UniProtKB/TrEMBL annotation:
Pathway assignment: Cofactor biosynthesis; adenosylcobalamin biosynthesis
Domain of life: Bacteria
GO-annotated biological processes: cobalamin biosynthetic process
Membrane spanning stretches: none
Name of this chain's protein: threonine-phosphate decarboxylase
Reaction catalysis annotation: O-phospho-L-threonine + H(+) = (R)-1-aminopropan-2-yl phosphate + CO2
E.C. number: 4.1.1.81
NCBIfam families according to UniProt: L_thr_O3P_dcar
First-tier enzyme category under EC: lyase
InterPro entries, per database record: Aminotransferase_I/II_large, CobD, NHTrfase_class1_PyrdxlP-BS, PyrdxlP-dep_Trfase, PyrdxlP-dep_Trfase_major, PyrdxlP-dep_Trfase_small
Gene3D superfamilies found in the cross-reference section: Aspartate Aminotransferase, domain 1, Type I PLP-dependent aspartate aminotransferase-like (Major domain)
Length: 320
């Protein structure tokens, strides 16, 4: 199986406790407050009008035309489908990064290179960049994205962690050979809703929509997404909170492990031994993310309140 965060069942089965703080993902632990749902959202099949309301809210938030937005069951749905609808044979995924991109391309029959230098993407039929990158937070300004797009057949820019950084986004002004992906679950903290967006030329979105079928996004996701995307005050307040909370986490952790990088939603640290660090935190009921391809790196999501920060701090003073 592919290696992922969020595998809290594994934590519980191995360490045998129920009060886990799951910092193994980059999901906001102070989620948008969901109110009561309309009976329509729960009992009726989603309508085109429902989808149009969500697309209008997403287009306003992301700064792109409404006909260039397609809601999907998470950004992961687009990651699985794009290799099936884009033409070509040679793909390049700027690495290290989220492993589903290379895995889904290989599963669809693409030849996949995983260079670490953006210049090495040149000439690929399909190139993938995660911006800001997971797990190290590496950033690519829009001008650099545009320059890379000019050297490849098609460029997919995964902006799953870009909501607090709209200055990095390629969603608003893209050539036709660029597709931007946005996650809803991470910044809004509602990952179980399974909502995300592909932002692309209308003809490509039509091919994706044909693959997803008529009701690819649930009624509750359409209704909640439209409301949350339009909640400008919550968005502004949350960006400030995450900025301050990420710095506070660094203040706790960096006396022990140097900071490698990160975003508003997660931090990456360098440890003497990532597996040992992972187990130390687990004994305190904190689930973290380590990587089989790097023996020293550990990634932590941002705690959601004072009690969670206190438990992280306590893990560094506990015996062993």
């Amino acid at each position: 199986m592919r290696d992922h965060g969020g595998d809290i069942d594994k934590a519980a089965s191995r360490f045998g406790r129920a009060d886990w703080i799951d910092l193994s993902t980059g999901i906001n632990r102070r989620p948008w407050p969901v109110g009561p749902l309309s009976p329509h959202a729960l009992t009726a099949l989603p309508t085109r009008a429902d989808a149009a309301r969500l697309c209008a809210a997403a287009a306003a938030r992301f700064g792109c035309p409404q006909d260039q937005v397609l809601p999907l069951a998470g950004a992961s749905a687009a990651i699985q489908l794009l290799p099936q609808v884009l033409a070509g044979r040679r793909a390049a995924v700027l690495s290290p990064t989220y492993n589903e991109h290379a895995a889904s391309l290989r599963a669809a029959g693409w030849e996949v290179a995983e260079p670490t230098d953006p210049a090495a993407l040149e000439g690929a039929d399909l190139a993938v960049i995660v911006n800001p990158n997971n797990p190290d937070g590496r950033e690519f300004p829009p001008a650099q994205i545009a320059a890379i797009a000019a050297t490849v057949g098609h460029l997919v820019v995964d902006e799953s962690f870009a909501d607090p950084r709209p200055d990095l986004s390629a969603a608003g002004a893209r050539p036709d050979n660029v597709t931007a992906l946005r996650s809803f679950g991470k910044f809004w903290g509602l990952a179980g809703l399974r909502l995300g967006f592909a932002i692309a030329a209308p003809d490509l979105l039509a091919r994706l929509a044909e693959r997803t079928g008529p009701w690819s996004v649930s009624g509750p996701a359409l209704e909640i997404g439209a409301q949350a995307l339009a909640d400008a005050q919550w968005i502004d307040d949350t960006v400030v909170w995450l900025s301050e909370a990420a710095l506070h986490l660094d203040q706790i952790v960096t006396p022990h492990w140097p900071l490698v990088g990160g975003t508003h939603l997660f931090r990456l640290y360098d440890t003497p031994d990532a597996q040992a660090a992972h187990e130390r935190l687990a004994r305190a009921g904190i689930w973290s993310r380590i990587f089989p391809w790097h023996p020293r790196w550990i990634r932590l999501g941002i705690p959601g309140n004072r009690a969670e920060f206190d438990r992280v701090a306590g893990a560094f003073t506990a015996p062993g």
